[in-house]
């Protein structure tokens, strides 16, 4: 049994990832209850601030994904409410959530990341889509990977293998965000490396290898059981696995993150990892990558959640 006190799990929100967030929140609640913690799950809505002010929880576990959950906004409010919470602070979230900015930061500390171009929707239209896209292909080559500059769960993301596919990919991307990140597609092993810090410094968990049955790790492949095969730990050489762990920890530190993060990488044919993006509120569902990494490390998710909450409380006190 735990003497942690009462925990509030935030889940839901109004982003495109609402359903995934609710599943993550329910999983965290279930895990914490096995340790004897009193836990309640609430949405991030107009009732949240009055509720917290009337009866402040001992700590908050944020499982909100997408905008507001990962862009620093909800964490800014939690700072105003003076309640301890798990995860990065507002400023770090703002930097990490914007993929082009995060790529620039990690490139600045020497990490390898695919060359890319960031294109707002207004520029795409105002300067003439055909002319701009033609220059993108000339600069970056093919294939390409197109995704919204902010957001997750592969919504609006697609691989572009021919120049003719690029306009449709851009339109699909702009359905989920106003700015597109177009980057060189690197063929290789897709892995995710979770980083945990319980107060004694960030440590990488074993990398998880992702092998979707349809070739693309899209929304359905991420959250439909059986659509993707996972290997935890990843089938990498010891040298490549160590390089992935080092890259994830370096990205975590360079971006000013804390407690928990997940870095997505591609390991090329030479065994060299390339940074793709980082997630400040990793999913906790039954098909999410962080719980798989926790199990591969020989730990249990309940104990990890408990430790993260205790660390957050120590930080505020």
TrEMBL record:
Molecular function terms from GO: ATP binding; D-alanine-D-alanine ligase activity; metal ion binding
Location in the cell: Cytoplasm
Any one Pfam family match given in the protein's UniProt record, by short name: Dala_Dala_lig_C
Gene Ontology cellular component list: cytoplasm
Cofactor note: Binds 2 magnesium or manganese ions per subunit.
Keywords noted in UniProt: ATP-binding, Cell shape, Cell wall biogenesis/degradation, Cytoplasm, Ligase, Magnesium, Manganese, Metal-binding, Nucleotide-binding, Peptidoglycan synthesis
Cofactor: Mg(2+); Mn(2+)
One annotated GO biological process: regulation of cell shape
The enzyme's E.C. designation: 6.3.2.4
InterPro entries in the record: ATP-grasp (IPR011761), ATP_grasp_subdomain_1 (IPR013815), D_ala_D_ala (IPR005905), Dala_Dala_lig_C (IPR011095), PreATP-grasp_dom_sf (IPR016185)
EC top class named in words: ligase
Residues the record lists as binding Mg(2+) 2: 277, 279
Catalytic activity, reaction form: 2 D-alanine + ATP = D-alanyl-D-alanine + ADP + phosphate + H(+)
HAMAP family: Dala_Dala_lig
NCBIfam families referenced in this protein's UniProt entry, alphabetically: PRK01372.1
Similarity section: Belongs to the D-alanine--D-alanine ligase family.
Protein name: D-alanine--D-alanine ligase
